[in-house]
Each structure stands twice: as structure tokens, then as C-alpha cells.
Amino acid sequence: GAGVSQSPSNKVTEKGKDVELRCDPISGHTALYWYRQSLGQGLEFLIYFQGNSAPDKSGLPSDRFSAERTGGSVSTLTIQRTQQEDSAVYLCASSVPYGVSYEQYFGPGTRLTVT
Amino acid sequence: QKEVEQDPGPLSVPEGAIVSLNCTYSNSAFQYFMWYRQYSRKGPELLMYTYSSGNKEDGRFTAQVDKSSKYISLFIRDSQPSDSATYLCAMSVPGNQFYFGTGTSLTVIP
Q1: pLDDT score at B1
Q2: With left for phi above 0 and alpha for psi between -120 and 50, is residue A72 left, alpha or beta?
Q3: Do residues A3 and B62 lie in contact, with contact meaning Cβ atoms separated by under 8 Å?
Q4: CB-nearest partner of B8 from A40, A58, A102
Q5: How distant is the Cα of B70 from the closest Cα of chain A, in angstroms?
Q6: Cβ-defined contact of A42 to B101 (cutoff 8 Å)
Q7: Which residue did the predictor score with more confidence, A1 or A97?
Q8: Which among B43, B88, B95 is the nearest to A109, CB-wise?
Q9: Is the distance from CB of B47 to CB of B35 less than 8 angstroms?
Q10: Which end of chain B is more exposed for a tag (fewer CB within 10 A), N or C?
Q11: How far apart (Å, rounded) are the C-alpha atoms in residues A4 and A93?
Q12: Minimal C-alpha gap between A17 and chain B (Å)
């Protein structure tokens, strides 16, 4: 079956512009995560959606970052007024709820470059 | 102090060697411990996960958790060139977010 998909796969933007990154989770997965992966920094947790519960936004680095999840499925991560330090690979993952499976399925990521 | 510490390597071994990858952590509340493998330009994929302490074996891979030492390991036996990837440890408190290590880059030389 289809895995987690992300678009675009690559995005080059100028400093100060806004960008939107999209994630399509696996059908039926109610949990969705966004991470940022920078060279030498590992995976940095950004935000977590679980069903209809309020999202855990504790990992968002600044108020320039926001995310939404419409209809419990597709999610969009928005970065406003991009800065060069925002350059990284943004990964999305989905999973069935805790207690059934603890495996996160990752998408291929969006490579963001801010010039 | 980071929640999870992992030696970034890089680690280079000859084909057939036994590889040992390790992580340490500080939060004694962690209950789930995972190892992910990430090939270049791909998303991570789950290799193994363990609940609480103990060992788990899957083919050439063995995961160990020592909660008393806050230390987890992944052993790869008879390493193959196809095992060349970055290996990330991850752990969590039940119902909470995952904390990942920075990853160890492994190259298996034919």
C-alpha cells in the first residue's frame, strides 16, 4: 500500500518568504508527527497530532512555525519569514495510536534550502 | 544535557564484522526504545523496538536495553555492505513524543 508522502521533495526559497510543506499520512493512521533533521543534529521533534486531541506543539522553535491537520488526514507545516537557519530536511511520520503499534512510518522528507 | 546521546561516528567496518551501536539517555521514565535505519536521502525506517529492559533478537540484529545504566545497544552480526546507513536510536515515555539520537553513520566495506 501507499506509504507516507511529502511534497515538495525539494524547496529553495529566498530569506523572508513563507513556505508550506505538505504531508499525506498512511490511511487510517491517526497520529502524525513533524520533525526537522539538520546535519549533525539528528531528528528534532516539532509537533504531534493525535486524532481530535489538541496538538503537542512543544517542539516548534518559534512562532514563525505553525502546522495544521485538516480532517484528521493531510497536514501542512508552514514556516513564515524563512531564515537561513531553517534550512534542513523536514520529515513527517504517521502511526496508529499508542497501544496498538509504536512504529512510526516516515515519509522521504522535504529538503528546504533558504538562500 | 540532551535527553539522548549517541556517538555520530562515522564507523567503518569490514564485511562480516560485528557492529555495536550505542545510546545513553537521562530520562528514567523512558519505556519504549527503538532503533531506526536511514539510508541516504530517505526517511528513517524502524528496525527494532523493545519495551522496558532486556534483549530482543531479529535475524542478524540484537537490541539490548539496560535501564539501570540508562544504556541501549544494537548489535549487527555478519555485517553486509547493504547495512551501510545511519542508525538512529529513539525512545519515549508511553503516550509522549519520541526523542531521537543524532544517528551513527555506518559503512560496511566489502
Answers
A1: 67
A2: left
A3: no
A4: A40
A5: 19
A6: yes
A7: A97
A8: B43
A9: yes
A10: N
A11: 7
A12: 25
Q: Is A58 on the interface with B (CB under 8 A)?
A: yes
In this predicted model, which residue has the larger pLDDT, A92 or A41? A92
Could you say which DSSP state residue B53 is in?
S
Going by their DSSP bridges, the two strands B104-109 and B11-14 should be labelled as parallel
Phi, psi angles (nearest 5°) of residue A19: -135, 150
CA distances from B7 to A58, B2, B25, B28, B67 (A): 26, 13, 12, 20, 19
Q: What residues contact A4, with CB distance under 8 A and at least 6 apart? A: A23, A24, A25, A26, A92, A93, A94, A105, A106, A107, B43
Chain A partners within 8 Å of B41 (Cβ) = 108
**Could you give the CA distance from residue B105 to residue B101 in angstroms, rounded to a whole number?**
12
pLDDT in tens, A6-64: 999 999 999 999 999 999 999 888 889 999 998 867 889 999 998 888 899 999 999 99
Chain B positions in Cβ-Cβ contact with residue A42 (cut-off 8 Å): 6, 88, 100-103
In the block, residue with C-alpha cell 533533521:
A37
User: At residue A100, does pLDDT exceed 50?
Assistant: no
Whether A45 and chain B come into contact, CB under 8 Å, resolves to yes
